[in-house]
Structure to design on (325 residues):
């Protein structure tokens, strides 16, 4: 009698374990190629970071990691795609400050960054650099502000899309400098840079990977950087903060997220793999050459960081009455 009861209990235990297996013992890496979605066109900062990191991730996990550029709506299209995407770990997103912490305050988006997307790890962060065409006749930040005050609305600034970091950086600067500038949105850093080189607008709070080659060639003039300290790759260019706007800081950043429906063991494993890559000396060196600082975090740390950024930029959106139109 006791033996039959024991066998029955053992059978129930094995059945429960089998039922639990799909949730707690997911295969990793996924059996198919991994897609790393990027919300901007090829050639910009997000694309540069994604391709460097994807290559090393693929080498480490023994599975291809393919970068998929889904430009449009300031990166919101890519974020919605991943929020509704595969939940087996085969699709991750190099998310960005705009769609994750700014756009939801400005417009109706098809996802909730804190409910539909799950944090994996911080990615990279960096200050933007305000650049102008060498033929624009503007040499300093003071010149830029003077031009904006002389003809309100005549000075234009580009961004990688409505609600992007470059957009809100321009709005924050306009607020502090008390100038009105016209925003010109693009679908990524590369197309914006092409038009700046053609002198089709006044200035651009650009990401370092996009701007540095043209600064070095002399085609663009850097006026100021947007962090609190001067970056090592532009040691002679003042920050906005030290140019008459104390405390000004607007960091750009990218972070890794996935569909919130992905099982926690897979999310945790992706955190481990991404952190490993971002701490790799060779990867850090390559990112540094592009002006990007690796920023690996725990999943909880990324959530906390995103919440603080959401509060900060939400206040700017309301104060400047910014919409996605």
């Amino acid at each position: 009698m006791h033996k039959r009861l024991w066998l029955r209990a053992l059978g129930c235990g094995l059945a429960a374990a089998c039922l639990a297996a799909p949730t707690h013992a997911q295969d990793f890496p996924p059996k198919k190629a991994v897609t790393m979605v990027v919300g901007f066109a090829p050639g910009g900062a997000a694309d540069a970071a994604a391709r460097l990191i994807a290559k090393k991730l693929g080498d480490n996990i023994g599975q291809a990691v393919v970068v998929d550029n889904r430009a449009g709506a300031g990166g919101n299209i890519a974020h919605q795609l991943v929020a509704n995407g595969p939940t087996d770990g085969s699709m991750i997103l190099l998310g960005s400050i705009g769609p994750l912490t700014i756009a939801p305050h400005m417009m109706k988006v098809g996802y909730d960054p804190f409910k539909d997307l799950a944090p994996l790890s911080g990615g990279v962060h960096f200050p933007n650099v305000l650049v102008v065409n060498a033929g624009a006749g503007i040499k300093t930040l003071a010149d830029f502000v003077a031009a904006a005050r002389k003809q309100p609305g005549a000075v234009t600034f580009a961004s990688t899309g409505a609600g992007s970091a470059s957009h809100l950086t321009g709005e924050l600067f306009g607020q502090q400098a008390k100038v009105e500038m016209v925003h010109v949105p693009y679908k990524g850093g590369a197309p914006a840079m092409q038009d700046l080189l053609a002198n089709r607008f006044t200035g651009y709070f650009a990401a370092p990977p996009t701007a540095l080659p043209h600064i070095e060639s002399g085609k663009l003039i850097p006026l100021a950087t947007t962090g609190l300290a001067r970056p090592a790759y532009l040691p002679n260019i003042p920050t906005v903060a030290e140019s008459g706007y104390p405390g000004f800081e607007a960091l750009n950043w990218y972070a890794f997220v996935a569909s919130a429906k992905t099982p926690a063991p897979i999310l945790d494993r992706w955190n481990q793999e991404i952190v490993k890559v971002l701490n790799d000396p060779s990867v850090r060196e390559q990112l540094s050459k592009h002006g990007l600082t690796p920023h690996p975090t725990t999943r909880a740390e990324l959530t906390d960081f995103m919440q603080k950024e959401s509060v900060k930029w939400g206040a700017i959106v309301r104060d400047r009455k910014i919409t996605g139109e």
